[in-house]
């Protein structure tokens, strides 16, 4: 199988493999810790080895890093001893990527409707990617949980953004007919 190495934290959130990436110092491991604390499952921190299996990308921890999480100001923690065996998995399919970037004033970030998903190419597989601007006071763990839940709903054909777009379109249509 083809292999590669990615920089980031791979967590299974509600059963979906989420690769959290971004520049150094964006808080990837801290978000990972918060997700683990909420009952989600660590696959790998800092370095994620990946292999292509058919049309899936499977991520796993290098042996040296397995079960460990590095936190600035604390050092390395042993996730299994701290949170129990259920807090870790050997590997997971990467279902989507969350890219953490420093908040930029004036930049237009996605708000509602009109889904413009970007992708990260890993071993010739396109993986959906969301960009989360990092700003003090944002609860990134909760946002990632919401993104995974939304992803799961979209897989079942429920798309709140598309529904909103349709409501706006129908409202405008009704207003046009009235005038």
Describe the protein's architecture and organization.
The protein is α+β, with helices and mostly antiparallel strands and 179 residues long. Helix content is 28%, strand content 37%. It has a single domain, classed as P-loop containing nucleotide triphosphate hydrolases (Rossmann fold). It has a 6-stranded mixed β-sheet. It has a 4-stranded antiparallel β-sheet with strand order 1-5-6-9, with no helix packed on it. Strands 7-8 form a two-stranded antiparallel ribbon. A hairpin with a 3-residue loop joins strand 7 and strand 8 (75-78). The protein is globular and about 70 Å long. The mean pLDDT is 91.
Give helix % range. 25-40%
The CATH top-level class label? Alpha Beta
Which stretches of 5+ consecutive residues score pLDDT under 50? Answer: none
How many discrete structural domains?
Answer: 1
How much strand content do the residues show?
A: 35-45%
Name the descriptors.
179 residues, alpha+beta, Rossmann fold, six-stranded mixed β-sheet, 28% helix, globular
